[in-house]
Amino acid sequence: MSTAPRQTGKAIMRIVSKTSGELVGLLYEWDNGDLQPWWLEGEVQGVLYEPMSAAS
After folding, report:
1. Do the strands 47-51 and 9-17 form a parallel or antiparallel pair, or are they unpaired?
2. How far apart, in whole angstroms, are the C-alpha atoms of residue 27 and residue 20?
3. Which of 7, 43, 45, 50 could join 14 in a cystine, given CB atoms 3.0 to 4.6 angstroms apart?
4. What is the total count of domains within the chain?
5. Is residue 17 assigned to a domain?
6. Would you say 10 and 31 are in contact if contact means Cβ atoms under 8 Å apart?
7. What is the pLDDT of residues 16-55, one digit of tens each?
8. pTM (two decimals)
9. In which domain, by residue range, is 25 found?
10. Cα dihedral angle (39, 40, 45, 47), rounded to 10 degrees?
11. In what order do the strands lie in the sheet with 23-30?
12. Whole-angstrom Cα distance, residue 29 to residue 35?
């Protein structure tokens, strides 16, 4: 984790459930290089990360 402040971030990956295939969150990349998941309804185990372009 960077010690630089976070100013802006953008979603770079979709987080989907391995079992249901449903979107459960997004992975954000901040301008300081940090990566942070954002969960729709709380953290989920057993996930896959898909590029944003793979959105259906």
Report:
1. antiparallel
2. 18
3. 50
4. 1
5. yes
6. no
7. 999 999 999 999 999 999 999 999 999 999 999 999 875 5
8. 0.81
9. 10-49
10. -90
11. 35-39, 23-30, 9-17, 47-51
12. 5
